[in-house]
Amino acid sequence: MVRDDLLEGGTKRRVLRAVLASRPAQEFVYAATAQGYGQLALALAARDVGRRATIFIAGRARCHPLTQAAQAAGATIHEVWQRPGFLPNVARQAALYTAQQDGRAELLPLGFNMPEFRAGLTALAQRLPVRPTEMWSVLGSGALLQSLQAAWPGAQAHGVQVGRIVECAGADIHIAPEAFASKAQMSPPFPSAPQQDAKVWRFVQARKGALFWNVAG
């Protein structure tokens, strides 16, 4: 197990710190899902390196605890109330805002799926003292699983789809039975993101040689 639930903000925070520090922008903009840990990871990583995080998210009657935590970590939150409040609309609003900042801000892609981020994930995996025969992760943007494939090309990759369809060449794809916004019906015996990483557990438990990457808790 990779227990990045033990770090506030999880795996993405580890890698984002170096990515943000290497870029000239002073403000980083992100379109987040309410249940996604990306918002908290970005808020914490930006604080770590002295940059600003601006997060766009669909408006809700009650702010999600992760959004509250991101705001407490210093992120500026923009709630998008136009309907439908789906992620593509939230992403459009984030892009419009970024374009108005005259180059001072950078818009980050869904799941931070960009070459520098994937390279950081691969390097992180390669530093682990393990060589799994298979690896498992949730499929969000696909960035983590692609990075693990690069780190351990001889291991079989398994991804668990929890929402939109994500292509990941060479990986076996498993579909979580729960709806995207629903919590995992079968969770691991340690903290795990209930709408995301926890949904991997029903597939991976008790598989010899398998590595489960728990991104956040």
* CATH architectural group of the largest domain: 3-Layer(aba) Sandwich
Order of helices and strands: EHEHEHEHEHEHEEHE
Oligomer: single chain
How many domains in all?
Answer: 2
Gyration radius, rounded: 17 Å
| Mean pLDDT score | 92
Percent of residues in helices comes to 25-40%
Binned strand content = 15-25%
Number of strands: 9
How many helices? The count is 7
- Our measurement of the CA-to-CA distance between the termini, rounded to an integer number of angstroms, reads 13 Å
Low-confidence stretches: none
CATH fold call of the largest domain:
Rossmann fold
Counting helices, strands and paired strands, the structural category is alpha/beta
Report the major sheet. 5 strands, parallel
CATH class of the largest domain: Alpha Beta
Per the principal axes of the C-alpha atoms, what is the gross shape? globular
Query: How are the strands of the largest sheet arranged?
Result: 1-9-6-7-8
What does this protein structure show overall?
With 217 residues, the chain is an alpha/beta fold. Helix content is 32%, strand content 20%. It folds into two domains: 8-112, Rossmann fold; 115-214. It contains seven helices and nine strands. Strands 1-9-6-7-8 form a five-stranded parallel sheet. The chain has a four-stranded parallel sheet with strand order 4-3-2-5, sandwiched between helices. The two termini are 13 Å apart.
